[in-house]
Amino acid sequence: MFKDYLEYKKSNDSNNELIKEVITNEDSENKIDWEKLENINKDIIGWIRIDGTNIDYPILKDDSRLKYLKHSYNGDYNKNGSIFTLDNNPFENNITILYGHNRRNNIMFSELGNYMDESFFYKHSSFDIYTKSKNYKVTIFSCYSIDVNVEENNIKLLSFNEEIEYYKKASKFSITDTGKIDRIIKLSTCSYINSYTTQTSQRYYIIGKLEESD
């Protein structure tokens, strides 16, 4: 437990220092020093922030070796990992999936489970993603928990539009007006929904419409 605490503290402190170092707020607009981030790690491709939560992290581009499952944004080993994607063209393709751990220390994607609460869902129904070239607004329209293998089987033969309809029907809460959806972000983390003590094959999925913003 003490080792876990030290890794949590190292991860949390390091991220807080990174925020102070690379993000400034001028005229209520976030300014990110992308050159500094690239000097730290060229795998950093973006930043995700969900206001009112602890989710305020760099996004890493990973590969099939899943380095960032157990490494922090600077490449150091840390089992809390990072927020990462395996997609080849993140934020440009129809679907971008972001992964992060759900840990008891409440960092990374631990707060995604709160979306199973209706008031939290509607209060935190949008978030921001920043990249070097573009900024995005994500409007959430679906949240649910399901076995990861069932999920993969459910969507594997669906077209993009069919997948959107699937997400809407699977959602725990109803969103009536999403408008035309061309691109989405899917946030994924382990779920404790059927267990109070251990992770299961369940996953929390939070899906939102991705649109460019100023």
What class would the helix/strand composition place it in? Answer: alpha+beta
Do you know the CATH architecture?
A: Beta Barrel
Q: How do the strands line up in the largest sheet? A: 5-4-3-7-8-10-9-6
CATH superfamily: Sortase
Low-confidence stretches: none
Shape: globular
Helix/strand order, N-terminal first: HEEHEEEEHEEHHEE
Q: How much of the polypeptide forms β-strand, as a percent range?
A: 25-35%
* Number of individual domains: 1
How would you describe this protein?
The protein has a single domain (2-213), classed as Sortase, Chain: A (Beta Barrel), CATH 2.40.260.10. It has 5 helices and 10 strands. It has helices spanning 2-22, 34-40, 118-123, 148-155, 160-170; strands at 23-26, 29-32, 44-49, 56-61, 83-85, 95-99, 126-130, 135-147, 184-190, 202-213. Strand 1 (23-26) and strand 2 (29-32) form a beta hairpin. The longest helix has 21 residues, at 2-22. It is globular and about 40 Å long.
Précis, in short:
With 214 residues, this protein is of the alpha+beta class. The chain has helices at residues 2-22, 34-40, 118-123, 148-155, 160-170; strands spanning 23-26, 29-32, 44-49, 56-61, 83-85, 95-99, 126-130, 135-147, 184-190, 202-213.
